[in-house]
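Note to self: the last two entries modelled the partners one at a time, which told us nothing about the interface. This time every component goes in together.
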Amino acid sequence: MAATSALQKRLRIAGIFVIVGLVIEAICLLWARPIAFVVMVVIGGLFSAIGVIVFLYSIVSGPQE
Amino acid sequence: MSLPTTLLLSLILFSAVLVSVLVALPGITASRGGKILAFLVLFVLPLLCMAIGVSSEVERSKSTSFCLSCHVMEPYGRSLRVDDPSYLAAAHFENHRVPADEACYTCHTDYAMFGGVRAKLHGLKHVYVQYLGKLPQQIHLYEPYNNRECLHCHLGARSFEEGAVHNADPELLPAVKANKMSCLSSGCHDVVHNISNLDKAKFWKGAN
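The predicted structure of the combined assembly is written out below.
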């Protein structure tokens, strides 16, 4: 039960990182300036990548069925 | 807003809503359907959105308005509307000899296989200089202008191949095609942007 709770907590964290990455990407798409490209790739990409990595880590370290 | 951008924003919004559902109800991942949903929204969709987003931004960075959004490029943008056909850039832009919405990119990017990527790396350096570095007094090309950028369109065109001036000297066209004689700096088409003379120039207001 505790392992399931830890898994859900990690999924939540992953989800929050992904949402922040997606929001940054959306803002950059509406912001037609050269810096928007860099912000989208570096900051948006970083948040999304952390979210994906946390998700992958959570499923490989989660409880076995 | 363009259709691809609208579609991408819709995909991002859709993904964000699904991720929010997962964040609010992580317990749904206990079921097989929840696991599949988690894989889709926390792995597939973020990577898909980022890949399409980067592709969209790279495509948008070809636009004339994108290039001219940096303050330092403003006089170059003005030079595209000079009311004088001897200004090469203006003559090409105003007469749509280059796509008006991709005018800068059309003439200033190598057409080799990796030309676009190399130009984008230079672009990243420009962004750094624009926001964190020191802007140069005068902008210079990284390399002498290559005739290839002109020949991409003009090679094989009748006005270019059979033009009287181009054929006055039989060695001229082969030298131009081999990039041994520059179209721009050899004294033939040397009025290009000439931003130092813009104060005296008249400007075309554009089509109605």
